[in-house]
Write a structure and sequence with these properties.
It is built from five helices and no strands. α2 packs antiparallel against α3, α2 packs parallel to α4 and α3 runs antiparallel to α4. It has a domain of about 90 residues. The N and C termini lie far apart (about 60 Å). With about 140 residues, it is an all-alpha fold. The longest helix is centred in the middle third of the chain and has 22 residues. About 5% of the residues have low confidence.
């Protein structure tokens, strides 16, 4: 059995440097980094992102869904302050959600806590005008 590596003790100077870095760090920065990390991790867990030369890992769709749910929650926190700057991240999250739905073989899950939105009767104005492309129609 392999022994864990010995625990590293920090010097007082190293601790002061770490504390100085923590003083500069903003919660917003950590949230943004975590959002990007969750999307990247979700893509890996879905088997969509594999480093060159490596075999794709086994898909883990429950982990993928958890990464999506976490990213959506963080996105909601960050969007009021960052708006349009988050457009590429929003696009990546949307693609990951679509891939998840395709890989899971069904419709997206609807949270039991959130009521299902009312569906309008018939096509909407954009679809009626013929300017909206709808798959299969």
């Amino acid at each position: 059995m392999t022994q864990p590596p010995p625990r590293q003790e920090f010097t007082e100077e190293e601790i002061r440097q770490i504390e100085a870095e923590m003083d500069k760090l903003r919660v917003d920065d950590v949230l943004l980094q975590t959002l990007v990390t969750l999307i990247n991790l979700g893509a890996r867990k879905a088997g969509l992102a594999t480093p060159p030369g490596e075999e794709p890992p086994a898909r883990d769709l429950p982990e993928t869904k958890q990464a999506i749910d976490g990213a959506r929650a963080l996105f909601a926190l960050l969007e009021p302050n960052h708006g349009e700057q988050l457009a590429p991240i929003k696009d990546a999250l949307s693609r990951l959600q679509m891939a998840y739905v395709q890989l899971s073989g069904g419709a997206p899950e609807v949270s039991e806590s959130a009521p299902e939105p009312d569906k309008p009767e018939g096509p909407g104005p954009a679809q009626s005008s013929g300017r909206l492309w709808v798959p299969g129609q």
